[in-house]
Design a protein that fits this description.
By secondary structure, this protein is α/β, with parallel strands linked by helices. The protein is 25% helix and 23% strand. The strands form 6 sheets. Strands 10-23-24-25-21-22-11 form a 7-stranded mixed sheet, covered by helices on one side. A 7-stranded mixed sheet has the order 19-16-17-18-12-15-20, with no helix packed on it. It is elongated.
Length: 547
């Protein structure tokens, strides 16, 4: 640690804690609530916690904070665990808040016995009013001075099933005049008659997050409990619980700014609205910022980790340009994606000076300039791979993009023109000797001659007509662009559009999810649901401008 240079304030704290001996080794945790899929904001927190543990030789647990059975289920747990492992992280252990329900209940009983918790049967709206406001202190509940004996009996009644939902709560007895609203006798247990995805009907009382979370950290020996900045005001309560429940371990909470991105919804509650309203095709819709959606879109896991690392950890709240994320995706795919020729607006071309049986097998490199064909073979240090080539048929008739031919070209246009020459990618040079148009002047066919010329300014891609396959392309944009107004009023109903194209034969055999480049069009991946279509992962050209 003496030579290590921290890269953020949390690493500074860890280095100091290790040097001072406050901790011998670090333990972190990533604690999502299983009430939805993880999104890219969660990826930032996951990267922080798992990478801190890896960097300092500690361990990081995956823990599901499943204290609200009404909103949580086992499927979300499975999907979250899959996402974490997809990102490349291996949890030291997989735990659940429900593992500790008995211990947490015992801690609550201990607070009652110490005179630090009481059962309140006031209506919820009355409790809310009694808490006061940011400028006015709260008022003590008439239940606050109940005896320990009475509180124990009432808490037993809550646990026995004899109290309806909302009929009673257990509150910590702290300070109703505290300037911090979280310290004004917060609710730490509530009655909830709902089956739990792991414990079934065993419990009808469940701890509140602010009470359960520090106790879970203590049980697991967490040394550095890192959470987003909105929990900063909750830290005094976190410390109060640790101190008054007399836990063996003494975890500390540290807060960092959460990830905000332009044109990106960063709230599970809002993402659920989009799913429930069918504005998107489920949590894994490739327009969604969920990790499952990004994976279906074709975004490599390494690009997400690289982006989160690049953004960094800070206290200051800021908004990151989504173009910066796209740049990280583009960098990764540029190094790993195979390349294929695809023509989105095809026009047929015929080579008039060759026989009908003309055929050449053109050697194509699977990678781009640096020839990196498939991420399976990428060197983890250099992100490169061996050169791989393949043969592509070129016959007498083929397709080119309509934009690659102009009957009346502007100055500086270097692709195919009447009597002009252009090189077919990786093949020979052709000269245009004629073309046909329809009644609207739209070019319907181009005739060329194969020449022996060796120089041409323009290079155009092509797809052999007789072996071409038709593909469908899904063009994706932000479901909810930035703007004013209610979320559902800002939903862009045109965020998913379709196009068709002619593609070389090999494209038909591409597996679901593999990120590939279609020359001059963008990076794409076959969709996992609509398997005859390809999602555009990201465009070729970057719009990111570092500040």
């Amino acid at each position: 640690m003496e030579d290590y240079k921290p890269t953020n304030f949390i690493e500074n704290i860890i280095v100091d804690d290790l040097k001072s001996g406050r901790v011998k080794s670090i333990v972190t945790r990533f604690p999502p609530e299983p009430n939805g899929r993880l999104h890219i904001g969660h990826a930032k927190a996951a990267c922080l916690n798992f990478m801190l543990a890896e960097k300092f030789g500690g361990k990081c647990n995956l823990r599901f904070d499943d204290t609200n059975p009404v909103k949580e289920d086992a499927d979300f747990c499975e999907q979250i665990e899959r996402d974490i492992r997809w990102l490349g992280f291996e949890p030291a252990g997989v735990y659940y808040a429900s593992d500790y329900f008995g211990y947490i209940r015992d801690c609550a009983v201990g607070l009652i016995r110490a005179g630090l918790a009481y059962v309140d049967d006031s209506p919820a709206d009355v409790i809310k009013i009694m808490r006061g406001t940011l400028t006015e202190p709260g008022k003590n509940s008439p239940c606050r001075e109940r005896s320990v004996k009475e509180n124990l009996a009432l808490f037993d009644k809550m646990q026995s099933g004899g109290v309806p939902d909302g009929g009673m709560v257990l509150r910590a007895k702290i300070d109703m005049a505290s300037p911090n609203m979280n310290m004004r006798d917060p609710v730490i247990y509530r009655v909830l008659h709902a089956p739990h995805h792991r414990t079934g009907d065993k419990w009808c009382v469940y701890p509140m997050y602010d009470f359960a979370h520090p106790l879970e950290d203590a049980v697991e020996g967490v040394t550095h409990s890192c959470c987003s900045l909105e929990f900063e005001d909750h830290r005094p309560l976190y410390d109060w619980v640790i101190e008054n429940c007399k836990t063996d371990a003494k975890p500390h909470q540290y807060e960092f700014a959460r990830l905000n991105m332009t044109d990106t919804v960063m709230s599970k509650r809002y993402l659920k609205q989009l799913v429930d309203s069918k504005s998107v095709d489920g949590w894994d819709d490739p327009r969604m910022p969920t990790l499952s959606g990004l994976r279906r879109r074709g975004v490599p896991a390494h690009a997400i980790v690289a982006f989160c690392t690049e953004v960094g950890i800070a206290k200051a709240v800021s908004t990151v340009d989504t173009a910066q994320f796209h740049d990280c995706v583009r960098d990764e795919l540029n190094a790993s994606a195979r390349r294929f020729m695809v023509v989105p607006d095809p026009v047929e071309v015929e080579i008039v000076n060759v026989d009908d049986g003309f055929e050449e097998m053109i050697e194509m490199t699977d990678g781009g300039e640096y020839a990196v064909p498939h991420r399976t073979f990428l060197d983890p240090e250099t992100r490169t791979a061996p050169i791989v080539t393949r043969k592509v048929r070129l016959g007498k008739r083929f397709y080119i993009d309509r934009a690659d031919f102009m009957p009346e070209p502007p100055k500086g246009y270097h692709r195919l023109t009447p009597n002009g020459v252009a090189r077919l990618k990786n093949a020979f040079i052709v000269r245009c000797v004629g073309f046909d148009t329809d009644g609207d002047g739209r070019v319907t066919k181009i005739r060329v001659e194969k020449t022996d010329e060796v120089k041409a300014k323009g290079v155009i891609q092509w797809v052999d007509r007789d072996t071409a396959v038709d593909i469908k392309i899904r063009l994706l944009s932000a479901v909810v662009p930035d703007g004013d107004g209610e979320l559902m009023d800002r939903v862009d109903k045109n965020s998913l559009a379709y196009a068709t194209a002619k593609a070389e034969r090999a494209v038909a055999d591409l597996p679901v999810g593999e990120g590939v480049q279609f020359f001059r069009i963008g990076y794409f991946a076959r969709d996992a649901v609509e398997t005859d279509a390809f999602n555009r992962t990201v465009e070729l050209k970057s719009s990111y401008k570092p500040s």
